[in-house]
Amino acid sequence: MSRPTLADVAARAGVSAKTVSNVLLGRRHVAEATRARVLEAVTEVGYTVNAAGRGLASGRTGRVAVVVPMIYQPYFAEVAERLILALAEHGLTTTLRIAHDDAAERDAVLGLTTPDVDGVILCPHGLSPEVLGDGIVPRPVVQLGGGIMPSFDCVIMGETEGFRSMTEHLLATGRKRIALIGTGPGGAPQGSRFAGYLEALTAHGIDLDERLLITGSDWDRRASGYEAVVGLLRTGVEFDAVMCFNDAMAVGALRGLRSHGLRVPQDVALTGFDDTAEVEFTSPPLSSVSPEQAQMVAATVRMLIERIDGYAGEPRVVRTGAHLVPRESSAPAESAG
Amino acid sequence: MSRPTLADVAARAGVSAKTVSNVLLGRRHVAEATRARVLEAVTEVGYTVNAAGRGLASGRTGRVAVVVPMIYQPYFAEVAERLILALAEHGLTTTLRIAHDDAAERDAVLGLTTPDVDGVILCPHGLSPEVLGDGIVPRPVVQLGGGIMPSFDCVIMGETEGFRSMTEHLLATGRKRIALIGTGPGGAPQGSRFAGYLEALTAHGIDLDERLLITGSDWDRRASGYEAVVGLLRTGVEFDAVMCFNDAMAVGALRGLRSHGLRVPQDVALTGFDDTAEVEFTSPPLSSVSPEQAQMVAATVRMLIERIDGYAGEPRVVRTGAHLVPRESSAPAESAG
DNA sequence: ACGCTGAATGGCAACGTTAACAATTGGTCC
DNA sequence: GGACCAATTGTTAACGTTGCCATTCAGCGT
């Protein structure tokens, strides 16, 4: 016995297939008695809608592509999981795409590698307007995290705000020479996160010491944080705190500091960004900044669904907050055991 | 201009739609010249196959559901990522399903929550034959990890083997009282992993001390390992090594040991299982057992594709190996700094 | 020369659903 | 009472692809 169709349900309920369809789609003008009878027939025969048929007739697939550079990094895994669950609540299924590089992200956005979805959620690795070029974006796209893109809706994290408050937190707890490990095209950390760091220093009348700016080889690898901190130690520059652009680098940096005999937080304070689950269980637990993932995901899904439903206004930008999550790794040096 | 169809390609190439379809499906009996002309037309008009149409006509969706209990735990994230990439190589797209509990896993296997896929890959949390009941499995299912299920193909990790060699490794490096943190229905660790531990002890003529067996509250949370080790310390039982059922618990256990002033590996050796990326960057890095993920994933995908292609033999069991990955956390007590 | 074989291609129907519209019913308004 | 409206249900024709089968044609053996 093969999978039941609308016709089977219709026969059972004594109505036409179209009426069953109307009930399932929640159309108005269906008598209450009919609706009840149809729903009963649906469960009796065990009907589930055939996505291929529906897709062909309606032009909608009910599917959304979530594009991430990788999922083995906790930040992306957590975001992807939240997105999948949020989309499921709206009846949308998810196909997860792993886009390792800029070109793969571009192809996903342009629809070359993501046909047959109603929309795309992009968690970018490093996609920039230049890489995207002037290709037509053929389908709703919402970007979660990363910089502002002119072609589609973007949800921007409170990076500057988060780094400003983290920097102030470190200054307030007695740290004076704060190294920054991040990424940037020019060999030194740049962008919104760097901006927050700089704002806080300026506000406290501290000059920027460029010897404290270290570039990790790769935004997303723990090894990158390890290498960066080892490089910093090798220069012999004095420092009493290390801020990392994200948690993954901070975990690597922690290992680097410890393997050189430095204690966290007694000798050096250490902080991350993203507030992923992994930094709660390092030794010591790492201070981080929570980018309000729940807010970001909610805004992303809301905007995507609006676009799928036909909204065609100008690209929008939503900025979410960020709050400090202080833990043991940034406790004042003197008070720590 | 809407998305091009087979008819558009056909018009461009001067053939029928059916011939274009034949070329795209790699059918025999297509002249080389025709094939070339069709492929050229495909790129010229930018054609991509419409999955809904193909699905409706062929009965295949080209999609596979990967069911995991969560993805924010590195083990599942890593496996899911490998599966997605391996399936993509075979032209299959993936929908990721998060199944939090046994009932959700059962529903995914039975197809209730995974219609419109050609097959299901299940990475189980704790699905057992009893939970599955005698429901008919309506579509190919392959299980990766977990125990043997009578209803579908299973890939079984070398759990016993891995725990046996890890236990022997610890004994060989001078540890005498090895605690085991895991899960089991009876309040003590059980199953294949426990069996490996026991085999090694028996082989060395060591009696099992049940006070060294601790059950974590939850297989997959780091907090569970933390709580377990704290509970163990509270009992006052002597131990010089802790083996955990997986890396997540080991990370939590490490935190628990450190926060009670115990040094790893000088005072206590500590080990995990799964060899996830996270244990390379703890302090110290944790010894673990690699379950040969690449092998497991390859076998899983191969068996699923065979099933999708119509193979209908009895459920099969593939056992993959496991090898020890010793790191600093299990170095001999006297030699460690 | 004839039928036969196999290669190459195309015609037609079907997959399960929904959009657009038609039809029927029952009631309301003047 | 008749025209009109709203509510409800049904009819027909797509949507884009592939399966099945028919057709054409060239080359071959006899």
Describe the fold and architecture.
Two copies of one chain form a homodimer. Chain A is an alpha/beta fold and 337 residues long. Chain A is built from twelve helices and twelve strands. In chain A, helix 11 (247-259) links the parallel strand 8 and strand 9. In chain A, 49% of the residues are buried. The A-B interface holds A 48-56, 61, 63, 70-72, 74, 77-78, 80-81, 84-85, 93-96, 98, 112, 115-116, 222-223, 226, 251-252, 254-255, 258-259, 277-278, 280-283, 285 and B 48-56, 61, 63, 70-72, 74, 77-78, 80-81, 84-85, 93-96, 98, 112, 115-116, 222-223, 226, 251-252, 254-255, 258-259, 277-278, 280-283, 285. The structure holds a DNA duplex (30 and 30 nucleotides).
Which terms summarize this structure?
homodimer; 337 residues; alpha/beta; 434 Repressor (Amino-terminal Domain); Rossmann fold; 3 domains; six-stranded parallel β-sheet; four-stranded parallel β-sheet; 12 helices; 41% helix; elongated; DNA-binding
SSE blueprint and pairings:
Two copies of one chain form a homodimer.
Chain A: H1 6-13, H2 17-24, H3 32-45, H4 51-58, E1 63-68, H5 74-89, E2 93-98, H6 102-110, E3 119-122, H7 129-132, E4 141-144, E5 153-156, H8 159-172, E6 178-182, H9 191-203, E7 213-215, H10 222-235, E8 241-244, H11 247-259, E9 269-271, E10 288-290, H12 293-308, E11 317-319, E12 323-325
Parallel strand pairs in A: 1-2, 1-3, 3-4, 4-5, 5-11, 6-7, 6-8, 8-9
Antiparallel strand pairs in A: 10-12
Chain A binds a DNA duplex (30 and 30 nucleotides) through residues 5-7, 15-19, 21-22, 25, 28-31, 34, 49-50, 52-59.
Keywords (chains A, B): DNA-binding, Transcription, Transcription regulation
InterPro entries (chains A, B): HTH_LacI, LacI/GalR-like_sensor, Lambda_DNA-bd_dom_sf, Peripla_BP_I
Domain HTH lacI-type (chains A, B): 4-58
